[in-house]
Amino acid sequence: MAKVISNEYLGENMYILKVSGIFKGKMGQFYMLRAWENYPLLSRPISIHDIGEDYISFLYKVVGKGTKILSELKPFDEIKLEGPYGNGFKEVDGKIALVGGGIGIAPLYLAAKTLKNVDVYMGFRKKAVLEDKFKKYSNEVNITVGRNITDILDVNKYDYILTCGPEIMMKKIVAMAKGTNTKVYVSIENKMACGVGACLVCTCKTKQGNKKTCKDGPVFLGEEVLFDE
Amino acid sequence: MAKVISNEYLGENMYILKVSGIFKGKMGQFYMLRAWENYPLLSRPISIHDIGEDYISFLYKVVGKGTKILSELKPFDEIKLEGPYGNGFKEVDGKIALVGGGIGIAPLYLAAKTLKNVDVYMGFRKKAVLEDKFKKYSNEVNITVGRNITDILDVNKYDYILTCGPEIMMKKIVAMAKGTNTKVYVSIENKMACGVGACLVCTCKTKQGNKKTCKDGPVFLGEEVLFDE
Amino acid sequence: MMSNLEVEFSSLKFKNPVVMASGTFGFGKEYCEIYDIEKLGGICSKGLTLNKKNGNDGVRIHETASGMMNSVGLENPGIEGFVKNELNYFKNLDLIKIVNIGGATIEDYVKSIEIISREDIDMIELNISCPNVKEGGMAFGIKDSIAREVIKEARNATKLPLVVKLSPNAEDIVKMAVVCEEEGADGISLVNTFKAMAIDIRKRKSIFKNTYAGLSGPAIKPIALRMVHEVCKNVTIPVMGMGGIVNYEDAIEFIMAGATCIQIGTANFINPRIGLEIIAGIEKFMKEENVKSLDEIRGIV
Amino acid sequence: MMSNLEVEFSSLKFKNPVVMASGTFGFGKEYCEIYDIEKLGGICSKGLTLNKKNGNDGVRIHETASGMMNSVGLENPGIEGFVKNELNYFKNLDLIKIVNIGGATIEDYVKSIEIISREDIDMIELNISCPNVKEGGMAFGIKDSIAREVIKEARNATKLPLVVKLSPNAEDIVKMAVVCEEEGADGISLVNTFKAMAIDIRKRKSIFKNTYAGLSGPAIKPIALRMVHEVCKNVTIPVMGMGGIVNYEDAIEFIMAGATCIQIGTANFINPRIGLEIIAGIEKFMKEENVKSLDEIRGIV
Ligand SMILES: Cc1cc2nc3c(=O)[nH]c(=O)nc-3n(C[C@H](O)[C@H](O)[C@H](O)COP(=O)(O)OP(=O)(O)OC[C@H]3O[C@@H](n4cnc5c(N)ncnc54)[C@H](O)[C@@H]3O)c2cc1C
Ligand SMILES: Cc1cc2nc3c(=O)[nH]c(=O)nc-3n(C[C@H](O)[C@H](O)[C@H](O)COP(=O)(O)OP(=O)(O)OC[C@H]3O[C@@H](n4cnc5c(N)ncnc54)[C@H](O)[C@@H]3O)c2cc1C
Ligand SMILES: Cc1cc2nc3c(=O)[nH]c(=O)nc-3n(C[C@H](O)[C@H](O)[C@H](O)COP(=O)(O)O)c2cc1C
Ligand SMILES: Cc1cc2nc3c(=O)[nH]c(=O)nc-3n(C[C@H](O)[C@H](O)[C@H](O)COP(=O)(O)O)c2cc1C
Ligand code: FES
Ligand code: FES
What we know:
Chain A is built from 4 helices and 15 strands. By secondary structure, chain A is mostly beta strands. The structure holds flavin-adenine dinucleotide (FAD) (2 copies), flavin mononucleotide (FMN) (2 copies) and FE2/S2 (inorganic) cluster (2 copies). Residues 21-24, 46-47, 70, 72, 74, 100, 127, 165, 192-193, 216-217, 220, 242-245, 264-267 of chain C line the site of one flavin mononucleotide. Chains C, D: It is found in: Cytoplasm.
């Protein structure tokens, strides 16, 4: 049981939840969150957005029952966190772009903080958020609103692209990088139950066969992933 | 949807919940309360403790899931109330005693307020509550702590006894009044589903056959009720 | 336009597919005090037996995770009692009026059906989950060979539209449905409650005097929906689907699985006005998805 | 005293009655990183088939009211893959090690059992919920006549203690259990998941590619408990009870219904340390209620 420090509304149904305590975790890893007893049944996987000596924070979007309950948390309320789970982003070196679509920007902040000197690309439907926060740890922050972020991304400029967001966006980026020297890492979102690799419900199909999104991922090399259809 | 005004802790796991709005209801009637979506499944029957022009209040004890959720309500939180249901206490006239055991005192406050000039008897396990509040509307307030309230009750002094509390207490009072001229009205607590008389899960066995606690009760003439065993 | 919610079930026209389930809505009177129940598609009466029944002793309800167990034991005034005291109000309701009939022997069923068939009601729902006394308590609803007999006799006993209500405890629910169709039932309704148990560990006793009781509510919805889907794929007569429906999304799921009408039971206890809300929700869904008639989506999955 | 939690199941002694259910605990390795799993009574491996399986396509999980549906489709490394890559770790665990075996034909079952019987494990759990290819996909777990064949052959193929895991979709769960006993099974475990369905009403499609999927979790507990109770009253071999157990109270209910061991599946996803908490809870209950051995309360209801 950990205690909520704050739960700030950012607009566009997005919140930043800050929880007090000493937590482990690196960029791209996630925790299973639970701020309820037995209903809904499953805990919810949420990426680490930021982490410090005495806190951890999560950026999340309200899309259903679980995230709704998260959004109602107030300072001093209790929450259960299990993790950190998953492999996280690799500590790559070179020219790096972080590309996020919508709530997919969540894990990229810790990535920016960790990797430094990155270029950030963020695509939003209606309104940009956290632009200034990201600027602190990046060379440039490029934003689209209501337009595909892939429209303004030149994959050839980068050695590495770390991306998280709608599958269609990540798929596009992988396709754009095909035949180039750019390596794309994608963070896959699949529904999860155990979060630790025991139940096999979160399968990500790859050229190497079935992988567990929770344990072998959520970060995969883009070219390895067999996206749907 | 109504809004919580206050939710005051009294000690001994008891709370008074005050809800804002214009409500109907008289002594001994109850509402079905629900301050949650679909879990737990059923709403909880709680007697009217007090009612005014722009509020209604409930005195409840935390015993499980539902009352636990009620106890976490804060001012401005929303709550659903369906009611008033049930028959309530009769407007009797004469020498009247109100006898409550534990949380059974809940409906007696509105009874005292309505009937006036009553004698109140309240039995508690460990600590008395609301003594002063009851004094305002009664001739005398008699209290036992850790001892049976029936020990200090002389049924012959009264024309009517209205009682609510543990079944064993009410049964005792009915037995004590047997053969006297004192009429005892008991308020029965049974688990409920619909609250309106449609599902037949809240049966109270009486000499007149099965009655619905929610619709025909919760107040019955004590001598009519066939208590368990 | 309310009209596009209309559905035809056998020879009957329902204003909308939303029907209140037997045993959860009394004879309609109680809910009438809360809202205008004539907005509903139909209601099923509390289960009636030939003779008055006092129902079961002991606890009659127990809440479970997203469900509830009941052991009412068919408490009811008996067919004659119903006809005398309840029918007058019931029959004047402007919606489809279904009378649910239970029984412990074929003779009882037949007699009840004969009596009720003389009255001004729209349909009979034959509840075959009751124990068959002759077969040693085995419910009619478990084995299709036993069910066949009672359905056959029931069919012969009435000209009213006859719906058979199946138990999810049936050995083979599809076979059971096929038997209903073969024996001339006009429709099928399912599911009734699941046989279930709960134990009071401090008292070291079953919560219910009868040991087992019937489980209903959202908990059972995924199983009920599967059964309705299986049945709808295997019969041509119309189906009333139910089991854990609490919102319009659930209702649409049952319709997409093939149900013509849907019934709402336990959800009435969550919200007494749930029927109206589900009707409104279905209408909203149809508008959003540009569905002109439920025929377009029925059985689409 | 931990010792009074010990239970004997056939010839095996479990430290305590708490066993992790097949498919929800992998081969133990993952949870080992979270806590000392050797405190558990036992674990059942993920279901193994003769040959490696990649499992089902499409969505594999869907949450329901107090339950979840899964359609993993028995993804597993195959018996040989298990023996080569997993067994070394698995067999060295200090608890009762149960290997769960699935199959589509009797021949597959028998071969799998023969291979695994050469290895250093404690017990085989025969999962008969898989489709019987010969009978046209009808699961072995539905009809007792079909189940009898596979149990008979499985029994002949091994000297290891053999537990047969029953499906709640069986036509007659009690009959099924009796067949297990008659064919020499050392025990029975139940229940597996319930066949269930969910529909995506906007896409107008079943959530799962296979149309149906298996329901587990608290939603099913009341039905599972009833089935365990019915089975325990009708066989003399020991039973492992499961289905929706999420706390020690649930576990005690199953034991009072007659189960010797209890299995925990879905609850691991609510809280990875649930096994330990349930063990602690059972111990606390026994102290409070002055129960020296679980034998005193087993089957008391
Ligand atoms: C590794 C990982 C990291 C994630 N990180 C974040 C994050 O940092 N911030 C954030 O807002 N979200 C994140 N998500 C997605 C988040 O887990 C889901 O949005 C959340 O579980 C939805 O729960 P709910 O109860 O609010 O919605 P539900 O009521 O369960 O469902 C609402 C909708 O969300 C979909 N959904 C449910 N669960 C998931 C899931 N696990 N993945 C994708 N879609 C789902 C449902 O299909 C449905 O359409 C992450 C998911 C994964 C797998
Ligand atoms: C007409 C009526 C009026 C009532 N008025 C009040 C009141 O004014 N104040 C108050 O505190 N309580 C009142 N009760 C009792 C109250 O309804 C229950 O305490 C409450 O429903 C328990 O809900 P829970 O979720 O907290 O407990 P649960 O988790 O459901 O159960 C906890 C324990 O309470 C018992 N219980 C559950 N429901 C009921 C019930 N309906 N009646 C009796 N026992 C039950 C359970 O068997 C269990 O032992 C009244 C009950 C009735 C029928
Ligand atoms: C309290 C209660 C009483 C019931 N009584 C009857 C009955 O008399 N006859 C009948 O056929 N079904 C009866 N049922 C079953 C319901 O009609 C319905 O089939 C079942 O509850 C599943 O639907 P639900 O999950 O929407 O409640 C009863 C159910 C409940 C909860
Ligand atoms: C994700 C998942 C995978 C499962 N895989 C198997 C399996 O491979 N073999 C098997 O016999 N049972 C399997 N089961 C069934 C469980 O072992 C258990 O019987 C069932 O889930 C009911 O228990 P529960 O409600 O505690 O989960 C699986 C269940 C789940 C949830
Ligand atoms: S969520 Fe269980 S294996 Fe990934
Ligand atoms: S609670 Fe339904 S009849 Fe009383």
